[in-house]
Amino acid sequence: MKPGIIMFMGVALVGMAATPYLMQRGGFGSLMSEMEAVYVAPESTKDTRQTFYKWQDANGQWHFSDDVPENVQVHAVDVDTAANILEPVSVPKKEPKPPKQAAQVPELSNFPIVTPDRAKEAFDQAEAVRAQMESRNEMLNKL
């Protein structure tokens, strides 16, 4: 590389590294804080109000213009550019939410406890009921 390019890159790198320090210490920081403290919202004037025209062509495409085209039905859109500028608002910090408590385990004394032996007994009873229903249906079909 050429020595001039290397020197330019070195100066640029030093400048970039020194910029935050200079902004805080060199007076730029106080200038920026003054600009933030004294905010004046722009006023609506004749210069900030504009009228645009919009229309739709035969293909459904929308068009916008400062001038009114001929042989087209247009809709006038009045825009105040000062109205779209909002004053800065400070947002309060969110309070941390308390941690959620673990769900309480319901008391098991209210629920029937099913052991494997009782589960087998319940299946056997269900099988007996099914057999009774089948025999009833066969008797009804014979009638």
Can you describe this structure?
There is one protein chain. The protein is of the alpha+beta class and 143 residues long. The chain folds into three domains: 1-39; 43-87, no CATH class; 112-142. It has three helices and three strands, in the order H-H-E-E-E-H. It has helices at residues 3-25, 28-37, 116-142; strands at residues 49-56, 62-65, 75-80. A three-stranded antiparallel β-sheet has the order 2-1-3, with no helix packed on it. A hairpin with a 5-residue loop joins strand 1 (49-56) and strand 2 (62-65). It starts with a helix and ends with a helix. The model has no long low-confidence stretch (mean pLDDT 79).
Based on the model shown, name its key terms.
3 strands, elongated, alpha+beta, 3 domains, 143 residues, single chain, 3-stranded antiparallel beta sheet, 13% strand
Put the structure in a nutshell:
This protein has helices at 3-25, 28-37, 116-142, and strands at 49-56, 62-65, 75-80. With 143 residues, the protein is an alpha+beta fold.
